[in-house]
């Protein structure tokens, strides 16, 4: 005959292992979140600075486009007269 297994102790060991794994995963995620939130330093411009620079460049291009279109309209008006 095979030896009897104490199921109560066996189930407690399984639950302990599962609980330990869950706790370790939660600790890993919380430590990553804490590091990214408080200790991560970015080198270079931030996303906001890049975005604002893109708006500024777009405004300059639009100003150049407007001036070119005005000069074209002025030349067309001279040719109509």
Q: What would you note in describing this structure?
A:
There is one protein chain. With 81 residues, this protein is mainly alpha-helical. The protein is 83% helix and 0% strand.
Number of helical segments with 4 or more residues: 2
End-to-end span in angstroms?
Answer: 115 Å
Mean pLDDT: 89
How many E strands? Answer: 0
Write down the secondary-structure element order: HH
Structural class per helix/strand content? mainly alpha
Low-confidence stretches: none
- Major sheet: size, sense and barrel closure? none
Helix share bin: over 70%
Radius of gyration: 34 Å
Query: What percent of residues are in strands?
Result: under 5%
Which descriptor suits the 3D outline?
Answer: rod-shaped
Main attributes of the structure:
81 residues, 0% strand, 2 helices, mainly alpha
Q: Helix and strand layout, with pairings?
A:
Layout: H1 7-39, H2 47-80
């Amino acid at each position: 005959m095979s030896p009897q297994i104490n199921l109560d102790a066996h189930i407690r060991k399984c639950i302990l292992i599962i609980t330990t794994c869950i706790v370790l995963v939660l600790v890993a995620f919380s430590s990553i979140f804490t590091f990214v939130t408080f200790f991560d330093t970015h080198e270079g411009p931030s996303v906001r600075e890049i975005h604002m620079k893109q708006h500024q460049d777009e405004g300059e291009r639009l100003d150049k486009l407007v001036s070119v279109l005005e000069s074209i309209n002025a030349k067309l008006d001279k040719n109509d007269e």
